[in-house]
Amino acid sequence: MLTLPRTIAAMSATAPALQAGPLSDPEIQAIRRDFPILASSVNGHPLVYLDSGATSQKPTGVLDTEREFYERRNSAVHRGAHTLAALATEEFEDARGAVARFIGAGDDEVVWTSNATEALNLVAYAMGNATLGRGGEASARFRLGAGDEIVVTEMEHHANLLPWQELAARTGATLRYIPIADDGTLRMDVAAETINSRTRVLAFTHVSNVLGVINPVADLVALGHAVGALVVLDACQSAPHLGLDVAALDVDFAAFSGHKMLGPTGVGVLYGKRELLNALPPFLVGGSMITTVTMETAEYLPAPQRFEAGTQRVAQAIGLAAAIHYLDVVGLARIAEHEASLGAMLVEGLSLIPGIRVLGPGIGQPRVGLASFDVAGVHSHDVGQFLDDRGIAVRVGHHCAQPLHRRFGVTSTTRASAYLYTTRDEVAEFLDGVVAATEFFGVNS
Known about the structure:
Blueprint: H1 6-14, H2 25-32, E1 41-42, E2 45-46, E3 48-49, H3 60-72, H4 83-103, E4 110-113, H5 116-131, E5 149-153, H6 162-171, E6 174-178, H7 188-194, E7 199-205, H8 217-226, E8 230-234, H9 246-249, E9 253-257, E10 268-272, H10 274-279, E11 290-293, E12 298-300, H11 314-330, H12 332-351, E13 356-359, E14 370-375, H13 380-389, E15 392-393, E16 395-397, H14 402-407, E17 413-417, H15 424-440
Parallel strand pairs: 3-15, 5-6, 5-7, 7-8, 8-9
Antiparallel strand pairs: 1-2, 4-10, 9-10, 11-12, 13-14, 14-17, 16-17
């Protein structure tokens, strides 16, 4: 049975308003007390953590849940008849149920993976296996060949680009992409032409990890399904921040990672519609995902177990369930509202600094709580090092999105990304740091 993290539990008992309205400053401070690392100092300064888009920090309740499992119920799941094995299996499957409820899916539509990258590779590689004839007639809908097309977008993270490049290379299909406009939004006029009767797969990100733009999922799904394409959603930057209802979105597959949403590293989720998962041939094969094995052949379990070969990431899955519980208690709508205000503050503040170019939607346009920017004449690594000297942690580089950066004529950017524990004071301190960086490097001097 999952328990509330201590500080949040106290808040729930004393502050019924926790689930309504924007997060107040006292609530954010109470949340921060659940994250021990946020009390750290870096280079003699209090830590300002603005790299949650890469990986989030973990509350005490998640850390305690994972540790308690190892101390009290550690055992391999689905493999033993002894008491510890039964308890571990029950908790492992309860965690699957928690994830399913969180995204509006059935328990058998949730596949554990190591991360979102593995989840996306699973779909692409399994489709390649179908093309090779694996899976029989049930998998025929996944087979690709010359003349078929896979469509992605110009803003994709490499994890949602490279697997489709490889699938196209393996099958002879053609990879196409939807370009982006100067403000970072998708060229939906071009999308309507690019997605056509030859499109078999449409894969795109819900939220760009560089631009902060929120893509029009409903419109893209409608375009894809109108031509019979399978729709694959990269939800890494949406599931932790906006909430995710896969049934309402009507996507065929979706992927996200635990470590970006307060959970442990080493665990991710692939959602797939039940009928599609059961028709898709396996990706990894081995123990625990079979019904019968002979020296010549094997028969595989239904989904999701058919995609969970070998020893599973049990403690990590249970830790992710605890993280989801934490997010549920705070409320995703409230988190999204808080982060949207921080995103607006980031864009407005950066846009006022001479020599700064912000990528993506401008002032007043919708975005999540992140902003990537270029400092004229200064490499992002130098900007990041300058900020780190002040205890401010940001991301630098191409953020695994080289084509997107090339589209904007830069090789790298500096990215600040917020989460539920980020304060307005921290954003203000970051903006002051960027101003100081431009002065130090002589920008516009």
